[in-house]
């Protein structure tokens, strides 16, 4: 099972939290972050990062396309 990951760079606030916490998943470009890859193995830490992103810009989906995070 793999998940998909994306960052809405139009809403990203450039806090750098995600890239600072998980540089293996995110790269920071000065004013916004992007995922290094479109897919990742299931990783609870990344769900937590998506939940805590101040812009709710990190979107994680499962293989069926169901949204896993950010969680309500
Ligand atoms: S945590 Fe959210 S707002 Fe901060 S850099 Fe990452 S995607 Fe952007």
UniProtKB/TrEMBL annotation:
InterPro entries: 3Fe4S_ferredoxin. GO terms for molecular function: electron transfer activity; iron ion binding; iron-sulfur cluster binding. It holds the Pfam family Fer4_13. The keyword Metal-binding applies. This is Ferredoxin. Keywords: Electron transport, Iron, Iron-sulfur, Metal-binding, Transport. Ferredoxins are iron-sulfur proteins that transfer electrons in a wide variety of metabolic reactions. It comes from the Bacteria.
């Amino acid at each position: 099972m793999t998940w998909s990951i994306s960052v809405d760079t139009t809403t990203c606030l450039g806090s750098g939290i995600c890239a600072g916490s998980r540089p293996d998943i995110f790269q920071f470009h000065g004013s916004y972050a992007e995922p290094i890859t479109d897919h990742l193995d299931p990783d609870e830490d990344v769900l937590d990062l998506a939940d805590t992103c101040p812009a709710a810009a990190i979107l994680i989906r499962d293989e069926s396309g169901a949204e896993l995070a950010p969680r309500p």
